[in-house]
Amino acid sequence: MTAETSQTLDRGLRVLKLLADTDHGLTVTELSNKLGVNRTVVYRLLATLEQHALVRRDLGGRARVGLGVLRLGRQVHPLVREAALPALRSLAEDIGATAHLTLVDGAEALAVAVVEPTWTDYHVAYRAGFRHPLDRGAAGRAILAARQGALTGPGYTLTHGELEAGASGAAAPLLGVTGVEGSVGVVMLADAVPERVGPRVVDAAREVADALR
């Protein structure tokens, strides 16, 4: 801790991170041990976070992340989308295919930004708000590969016909962005993705990651 930081705020944020990393919640004692502070401090932190609906406690006394976190999270998507749009526009125009930014939302992949090329005769209609399982489609598979440390040498994932018959996709994960798990990709009506598309998608994902840091 430095003189410019708040120890109390730091501890409160650490509580939220600890609770976000567990599905079953944590007791006051467990939080006390993990934070290295006494139970009285933890009680005060939880009471303050509960007032803002960022934490809730069940009947057994276990603390869990509260619904207030969801309200804060809804404001993240517009900010991420705005930062990603320049790279997505460039990608869509360069490749002549629909470009998208996809983020993890629970157990699903959620398209939060979509840009269609302006010069093509036809392209895949892909809409912001579209959801699909993480293990289907290039966007979700790229995210899972990064999560599992299973990225191949080129750093991108290719699929065909998993979400739409006749459509192929390429996607690369966002890397090195704290708190954001997602991918950048393109989808096109083709039997196979042209060779140059994968590296171009990796470059676009890197541009978006840089914009979000």
Q: Percent of residues in beta strands? A: 15-25%
Shape: elongated
For the residues shown, what is the average pLDDT? 91
The N- to C-terminal Cα distance equals 22 Å
* Main pleated sheet: 6 strands, antiparallel
Query: What is the subunit arrangement here?
Result: single chain
Q: Could you state the order of secondary-structure elements as H and E?
A: HHHEEHHEEEHEEEH
Strand order of the largest sheet: 5-4-3-8-7-6
What's the Cα radius of gyration? Answer: 21 Å
Strands, total number: 8
What structural class do the secondary elements suggest?
alpha+beta
**Helix share, percent:** 40-55%
Number of helices: 7
Residue ranges: pLDDT <50 for 5 or more in a row?
Answer: none
List the helices and strands and how they pair.
Blueprint: H1 7-20, H2 28-35, H3 39-51, E1 55-57, E2 63-65, H4 68-74, H5 76-95, E3 98-105, E4 108-115, E5 131-133, H6 138-147, E6 157-160, E7 167-173, E8 182-189, H7 197-212
Antiparallel strand pairs: 1-2, 3-4, 3-8, 4-5, 6-7, 7-8
Helix pairs in contact: 2-3, 5-7
How would you describe the overall organization of this protein?
With 213 residues, the chain is of the alpha+beta class. Helix content is 41%, strand content 21%. The chain is built from seven helices and eight strands; from the N terminus they run αααββααβββαβββα. α5 runs antiparallel to α7. The model has no long low-confidence stretch (mean pLDDT 91). Pfam families: HTH_IclR, IclR_C.
